[in-house]
Structure formats: structure tokens, C-alpha cells
Fold:
Amino acid sequence: MSGRTVNGKFRKAVSVTDSLESADNIAVRYLWARERIKQLSDYGEFGESVKDEVTQLGLEYHLMTEYTSFVAVDSEKRNTGESITVKQPLLCPRCQQPGGRELLRSKI
Structure:
């Protein structure tokens, strides 16, 4: 790592080895994929290559994206032809930001 501080330039080498890999850290790969999708989407990049990368990440890491979604299949068959509307509560966009859920709780 390198950067600048008030005391001048900063440089530090960090050794990363496969020996630190653990099944307990499996969530890190999904967090990385979410962050990569967010970067691709938030920085206004457009084009087929961005769409393809976002789609691939969504499929590979089982994440919902702008180009992928989930389909729920129920094992119960309904042959009545009647459609049923289900209201699904969703968080507002502000509540999905860091600290947003605490903000929501403080207003309730």
C-alpha cells in the first residue's frame, strides 16, 4: 500500500498468502461481487461489456442485478385461474445505504 500522510509518503508491504484462505471467509467473495456490480452501475459506464460483466457476476454469485432476477416457484399447484396480489415490503433506497437502517429505526 502506498499513499500520503501529513508526515509524508507512506508505503507498506502486506503479505497475502493462500494459507489465510478459510471457509469462514466465504462471504467475502459475495461482498466483492456486490461492490464490483455497484461500481460498474454507479459510475455511469454503459455498453455491452458492462452489461455482460454485471450479468455474469449476478449469475455466478447468485445476486440480483439490473440484468438478472430471481423467479420463485411454488410446489403447490393452483388451477383456479385466480390471480393473487401479494404486497412485499421493501426498504426505501435511503435505508439501504450504510447507517440507513438505524435512521429508519430512529424515526419509528
